[in-house]
Every structure is written in structure tokens, then in C-alpha cells.
Amino acid sequence: MRIIKVPVEDGVLTGYLRDTQEFEKERLRPAVVICPGGSYAECSGREGEPYALRFLTMGYQAFVLDYSVAPVRFPAALLELARAVALVREKADQWQIDPEQIFVCGSSAGGHLAGSLGVHWDKKFVQEGSGRSGEKIRPDGLILCYPVITAGEYAHEGSVKNLLGERREDRELLDLISLEKQAGSQVPPTFLWHTAGDRTVGAENSLLFAMALKRAGVAVELHLFSGGRHAMALGDEDTALDPEGEYADPGVAEWTRLAGLWVKRLRKNGGQAGISRA
Fold it and tell me: Is the pLDDT of residue 128 over 50?
């Protein structure tokens, strides 16, 4: 494994790249750009490198974006993510990546960031702000883990406050960051998971986005787990916060396997998928 670090404006993109074996010289791998959570106040270590190492074992080239957080405001982090995706696509040959298989994965507020690129990649303010065309910054799929989605009834107020600051009373801006209101046919295929008992970012966030994507005809898969709480990360002992494993649940821990199967189906079926619940 090689580890590289590349500045992306005020953020940092860390790449975890598989070593190329002799028999793999012509093989192109899918890539995933990971956005950790942290309420737009920090980037959680539990939702960064552990994810990258897990995806690495699944055959991906993996990248973690440490993006700008409060007091830096919207859309700074979004523009950094757009540039990061463009960079991975531009370096695809060098890093042995399939440029048409670049996914963005995010947890909690990082899920909002990943989803924001999914809904806004075709917008003028993102393309001009990042200095990249839509075809360069568009993700080929979204993997959203207990994501913050809405600034409405089920909002995570801390994330909204950190993202917008004094502008959080601006109704037009609140609608812009409410991803369920921005969902349309431009959104790439999306994999979502949440826990029913999440009391920090309610599962309604994922449900709202899944319903909006379904109405728009976007391929979407949703898993709603009965066990677990917010910020489960990998859902196993690797990211549990205590010896008793409060953040570990055998059902939730299946999400990386399920996401991997979803990607394989997308590659086989040309981006078609349905909604499933587990």
C-alpha cells in the first residue's frame, strides 16, 4: 500500500493506493473518495482512515478528504470535494483507477457533503467555483452513511449552524442545502443506510432522500437497520468507542459488504438498482 497526501485548496486529500502486482498491471479499480462526519465542525477520524482501509481490502483505491469546517462556510467544503473528485479522475491512469467508477462516500455531515456534490455537480456555482467542468466532478455513485440531508423539520441543527453561520435564516439557502429538495435526474445512483434508533440525525433524513430519488427515477438502495445508534462508522470493533462495543452491531457491520455488492450490480447493470430495506 502507498499513502499519498495532496492539498485541495484548504483541504487535504489522503490516498490509500493498492500496490500493483505483475498480473494486475492492466487492471483498473473503482475509487472512493471518503468524507468523514463531524457536524461540519471537525472531520472524524473514525469515519476516515478506517473506511479507506476497509475499501482498500475490497479492491478499491481509497481517498479521505479532510475538508474545511467551521468557521469556514458553505460552499467551501463542496468546492474542495469537487476538486478532489476531479483530481482523482485526472490521475486515473497514474493511480490505476477506472475514471467511470469514482464513488463518493460520506457519513453524517460528511454524507451531506457527498450528497451535495451528487445534487449540485451540474450547477454553475459549483463548476465555476471549483474551476472544473461537470463531467470532471460528477460522482459515478454516492454511498451515504446516516447522512444529514435536510435543513427542514428533521434537520441536524448543529450541522446547519456550522455550515451556514449567520446565513442560517436565509430560506433560499436552506432550500439549497436541503438535498431532498434538490434531488432530480442529475443525481447519480445512491446507496443509503441509517439506523432506526438514530437520535442525532433521524432516519427520516435518509427516507426523505430515498423518496425524492425514487420520484426522480434515480437508482437507489436503502438499508434501515433496527440495531445501532448514530455514528456507527464501520459498525464493528474496528471503530467501536468502548470495550463493550456500543458502536458495534453485527447487522450494521454488514453495510460495507452490501455497498460492495451494490457497486458490482451497478457495474453489471449499467446503473440500475431498486430500493431494499434490511
Answer: yes
